[in-house]
Each structure stands twice: as C-alpha cells, then as structure tokens.
Amino acid sequence: MCNLPPKFHSVCRLCLSFCGDNCSDVKVPIFDRDKDKSRLSEMIMTYLSIMVSPSDMLPQVVCGSCAHKLDEFHTFRELSHKSEKLLEQFLHYANSLSGPKEVS
C-alpha cells in the first residue's frame, strides 16, 4: 500500500476542498449505511459519470457544497422531465381538439 498523506481521505471527492475539524462545511459520506437516506453515490455516477466504489481507495466524502449541488441538479432534472411530459401531454391534447387534418 502507498503512503498517503493523513488528510487524503478528508478531501472532497468532487472538488478537492479540504474540510478539517474547525471547518464550518460538513463532510458528507458518499456511501451511507442507510440506503434510503443517501443516494450520493448513485447521483455521482448518474449525473457526473464518475464511478465510485466503497473499495476504490479514494476519498469517500464530499463537501456540503458539492452535496448541495448534486441535490439541486437532481431537483432540476426531475423538474425538466416533468415539464417535458406535461408539454407533450398538452400538445397531444391540443391536437385532439383540432380533429384530424385534411389532406388537400
């Protein structure tokens, strides 16, 4: 095993910011024991295309700022998908009101 600096595992996996004991930002574990509570690993892999694994020997935490950005991106993605569905439904409804188109 290589000699890693003692604080290597305390840096944010995504932005490399360091948050020591006297920092106001929080370190959020990527892998939480309660699967329903933490979906960070899934969001990192889905939205950022970065593979993370509990056994990959890289830092297993992200800073609060990066965790918040992932949450915001997830919310934005959900809103965008919902909006797309509503627009498609509206278009389908509008087309059904106008009746079949006549061919000249």
Automatic annotation (TrEMBL):
UniProt keyword Zinc-finger present: yes
Keyword line: Metal-binding, Zinc, Zinc-finger
Occurrences of domain ZAD (ranges): 10-90
GO molecular function, one term: zinc ion binding
InterPro entries: Znf_AD
PANTHER family reported in the protein's UniProt record: BCDNA.LD26519-RELATED (PTHR39942:SF1)
The name this protein goes by in its record: ZAD domain-containing protein
Organism: Parnassius mnemosyne (clouded apollo)
